[in-house]
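FW: tagging you since you asked about this chain on Friday. Here's the raw sequence from the shared folder, copied in full. Didn't touch anything.
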Amino acid sequence: MVKSVLSLITLSVGIVLLWLNPNWVHLVTQSLGISPLLALIIVCLLYSLILMLPFMPGMEIGVMIMLLFGAPGIIGAWLATVVGLSLAFLLGAYFKRSAPIQRLLGKLARISAPEGPPTWRQHLVAFGLSRMANHPYLSVALLFNIPGNILIGGGGGIALSAGALSTMQVHRFALTVALASSLIPFLMLTGLLTL
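HL: got it, structure written out here
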């Protein structure tokens, strides 16, 4: 809950700053004495690290990067998404027997098998997890794009879990992430979606 509020505050601050002055990024980078490209690279690296964390909503930060930096930010945020989630997958695969990864998998199992009447999200999680063995890439793509996936670990938690389950290859997982996360950047780059 606190992480969701913080990410919404971050996105709101970015939108307000853009509304007050569309050249806000250039003014800040000039005052710091760095180029906008270097600022974008630093922000995208930090964004990749944030995305690796389970239960961390990253979409709002990605959208803020896209809004603040324009077309380079759209491409940078998309690439940072692929890199961050692929690194989380690799961490999940490498540390699959560690206690934190096992706790995350246990939490996902409890969400998908509730004691009381399941919610629609729990049905969706149970469906995604049950299909992961037969259709792992499609399941992961769907789980990344369901509304409220923060309840099942967010992008980082899904990627860590997918790596720990050892049913996917990293290059195919990265391609799945690239395709699953490309709709909004594509719509923004083509001008079909404006925020």
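FW: The CA atoms of residues 55 and 158 lie 9 Å apart.
HL: agreed, and Residues 59-94 form the longest helix (36 residues).
FW: great, closing this out.
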